[in-house]
Design a protein that fits this description.
285 residues; mainly alpha
C-alpha cells in the first residue's frame, strides 16, 4: 500500500487535473450542480453494485468516479465563492471529532492534528466518553447531532427525503432505536408483522386499492423492522433475491432461445421445470 504522502500527492493530482479540465474541456467547463446531479446518482449506484458484487477492482474504479464528482462540486463551490475542497474536508474532520467524544475531547475541533483524549468536562461529555460498544456509539451519535450548531433539529430530520424507500424505512427505524424507541424483545415484532399481514389480506379481499396500498406499506415497514432487529440488511437481502431471480429467469430464456421456442409459447409447467433446474445448479441457496 502507499504512504500517506503518496496518497496526498495522488489527491492533489486529481484536483490539478480537474482544474485543467474545467478550464480547457468544453464539456467539463459547461457543467453545473444541476447537470452533474443525475450522473452522480448513476455513479453512486454503480459503486453500490460493485460493493454488492464484492468486486475490489470495480469498487476501486467506481470510488474514483464518485470522488471525481465530489471534487467537481467543491470546484464549482470555489468558483462561486461559497466554499472549496479545504472547507469540505476540514468541516468533515471537525464533525467526526465532535461526534466521537469517546475518542477526542470536544476542544480539539478545529485542530489540525487531534490526538485521542477520551475524557469530558460537562456531564454529557463525560457520559458520551464512556461509550465502549458500537451500539453505545450509535446512540450517542444521534444525541450529539442534535447539539451541533448546524446539525439536525429533530431525530428524523437527518433521514434524506430522496433515499430509496427500503433504505429510508430502515434508517428511520434505526434512528428511532438510537433514542430508545424500539421493541424491548425482538421476538415481539412478529406479532406486529402478522397483524399487518392480516390487515393487508382483509383490505385486498375488499378490493379497496387505496387502503390496500396503505396496508401494504405498513406490512413492508414491519418486515423491514424485523430484519433490522435481527441485524439483517433488507436492501442487501432484496438485491440478492433480485440477482437470483435474474439468473434463474435468464436460464429459462436461454433455453427457449436454444430450442427455438419463444417464452410466450412455453407453458408454466415448462418454465417451472427449467426454474428448478437453474436452482439445482446454484450453490449456497
Amino acid at each position: 500500500m502507499h504512504t500517506r504522502e503518496e496518497q496526498m500527492q495522488a489527491f492533489g493530482r486529481l484536483l490539478d487535473v480537474l482544474d485543467q479540465l474545467r478550464e480547457k474541456c468544453p464539456w467539463d467547463r459547461k457543467q453545473t450542480n444541476e447537470s452533474l446531479r443525475p450522473n452522480t446518482i448513476e455513479e453512486t449506484y454503480e459503486l453500490c453494485d460493485a460493493l454488492a458484487r464484492g468486486d475490489q477492482h470495480d469498487t476501486m474504479k467506481e470510488l474514483g468516479d464518485v470522488m471525481m464528482h465530489l471534487c467537481f462540486y467543491a470546484k464549482i463551490g470555489q468558483e462561486q465563492g461559497a466554499f472549496d475542497i479545504y472547507d469540505v474536508l476540514r468541516h468533515q474532520a471537525d464533525k467526526l471529532i465532535f461526534r466521537h467524544p469517546h475518542i477526542y475531547h470536544p476542544s480539539q475541533v478545529g485542530q489540525d492534528h487531534p490526538r485521542p483524549l477520551p475524557y469530558g468536562e460537562t456531564d454529557d461529555e463525560r457520559e458520551f466518553a464512556k461509550a465502549s460498544t458500537a451500539d453505545q456509539v450509535l446512540q450517542n451519535w444521534e444525541q450529539i447531532k442534535l447539539k451541533e450548531k448546524d446539525g439536525n433539529k429533530t431525530v428524523l430530520s437527518g433521514v434524506p427525503a430522496a433515499l430509496p424507500s427500503v433504505i429510508k424505512a430502515y434508517r428511520i427505524q434505526d434512528k428511532a432505536r438510537n433514542v430508545g424507541f424500539d421493541w424491548q424483545q425482538r421476538d415481539d415484532v412478529w406479532d406486529k408483522v402478522r397483524e399487518e399481514l392480516g390487515e393487508l389480506e382483509a383490505e385486498l379481499k375488499r378490493e379497496d386499492k387505496e387502503k390496500s396500498t396503505n396496508e401494504l406499506g405498513d406490512f413492508l415497514f414491519s418486515v423491514i423492522n424485523a430484519a433490522r432487529l435481527y441485524k439483517l440488511n433488507p436492501d442487501n437481502a432484496l438485491e440478492r433475491t433480485n440477482a437470483k431471480f435474474i439468473r434463474r429467469f435468464n436460464y429459462i430464456e436461454q433455453h427457449s432461445i436454444r430450442v427455438g421456442k419463444p417464452l410466450t409459447e412455453m407453458s408454466l409447467e415448462e418454465m417451472d421445470r427449467l426454474w428448478n433446474e437453474a436452482k439445482s445448479q446454484e450453490t449456497n441457496e
